[in-house]
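Support reply, case 0932

Customer input (verbatim):
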Amino acid sequence: MGFLDGVFGSKDKKQSDEETYMKLDLQAFEGAAGEAAPATMYVKVASVTDIKDCPAIKDEIYNGNIVIVDITKLKLDKIMFDRVMGDLRAVSRDVNGDIIGLGDQRYVIVVPTGVRISREKIGGY
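Our regenerated output:
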């Protein structure tokens, strides 16, 4: 083994490195991931077009899930917008959660008890 072989490695060294690595059975890891415990909280996505859509969203919040609500279609009707937003604020208060508008007020995030939404942005000022 010459000096350059020590710096750059030799073909013999590469072959011996390949022999020392252990081959993994990835199916064993995939099976373990599929058997994981069920989640205690989910992030759900909803779209609201009418006040009739609110009970399903409220149920998700009462069940302890986070809901991201698309409210872009409500922007066309100010009265319906105010009614739906009032309902979402009320459920947020009921469960001692939090609510915030996001993305030029196109989305609203409603979270249940034990979760708070930070009003500080991370990067991209």
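We compared this against your earlier run and they match. Two observations from our side: Helices lie at 3-8, 11-20, 26-34, 54-62, 78-94. The chain has two domains: 3-34, 43-111. Please reopen the case if you see a mismatch on your end.
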